[in-house]
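Bumping my old thread because nobody answered last time. Still need a sequence for this structure:
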């Protein structure tokens, strides 16, 4: 075991209530101490909270929801914020927005997922949409956390994250 600090990954979405929350919780669950997940939104609504169906789906998958909260991405641009190694937008709206300056010039990538909270079906259909999104996020994150050490250097991390967007 090394004393290497974890690779910090910030997942961004517009409201920070669904996809980015699912990604943060999942990475922290499977990251094995090598990775640390965070999430934020470009414009969370006032009093925004993580989507309750998303929290339920995470809990059903055995993933902790402790400490999850919706927050503005400006928190991570502050001087005392943890420096990120990788920033991944998980919704197409956030990908097209002008992001704040990120200290340390982290690698960036866009992993597009449909918004599971946008559906208008039954509760069961909404829950299934969240399950499918969680599964898609988990599949890419499993690939990320299992990359060999030589694929996680700063420059290579950029390319690795972009390649995973295609998987």
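Sorry it took so long. Here it is:
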């Amino acid at each position: 075991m090394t004393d290497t600090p974890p690779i910090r990954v910030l997942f961004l979405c517009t409201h920070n209530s669904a996809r980015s929350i699912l990604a943060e919780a999942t990475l922290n669950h499977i990251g094995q101490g090598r990775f640390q997940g965070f999430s934020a939104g470009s414009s969370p609504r006032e009093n925004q909270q993580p989507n309750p169906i998303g929290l339920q789906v995470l809990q059903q998958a055995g993933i902790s929801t402790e400490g999850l909260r919706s927050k503005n991405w400006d928190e991570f641009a502050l001087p005392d914020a943890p420096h990120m190694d990788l920033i991944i937008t998980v919704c197409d709206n956030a990908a097209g927005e002008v992001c704040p300056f990120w200290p340390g010039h982290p690698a960036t990538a866009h992993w597009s997922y449909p918004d599971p909270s946008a559906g208008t079906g039954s509760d069961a259909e909404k829950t299934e949409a969240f399950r499918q999104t969680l599964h898609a996020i988990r599949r890419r994150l499993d690939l990320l956390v299992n990359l060999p050490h030589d694929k996680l250097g700063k420059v290579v991390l950029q390319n690795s994250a972009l390649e995973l967007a295609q998987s």
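The helical segments are 19-30, 52-60, 92-95, 123-145, 154-164. Let me know if any region looks off to you.
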